[in-house]
Amino acid sequence: MRSEAFLLLGLLVLAGCTGSVTDGSTASSPGVERTPTVETTTATATPFPNTTVAFPAGPKSRQALLETITAETAREYVVRHEYRYSYNELWSGPETEVGMSDASCGVRSTEPEASGYVVTVRCTAYVNEPSSGDTTRTRHADLPPWNV
What we know:
The chain has 148 residues and is α+β, with helices and mostly antiparallel strands.
């Protein structure tokens, strides 16, 4: 009984697909000129959300936002921000040695954008921290460069 209902449903669906052309008109209207409809869409800019991203806890503090944004100030701000943010992300306590400085991050590109600039930064770092349960041994991690 159940399979008969599915078969009947499948036939009804397929029946609606026969006898029509892709533009929605029927195939039985000879001599009728068909004009395809073209939908146009316009792109709208999505504004940035008015929210603040949580800054990770650690020894580096969040820097103040820029008053005036130029390509140069945007590059400097993003390098410092990414350095401080990444340092805190890698830092897990006073016994952790994070091998990272302002020079560990560099600007890859700066592109003007409607509301400012899109800055791509590449950073690298290493971390030394005590092995869990053994204070005489150190774990070392060289992190591959990452782009932000």
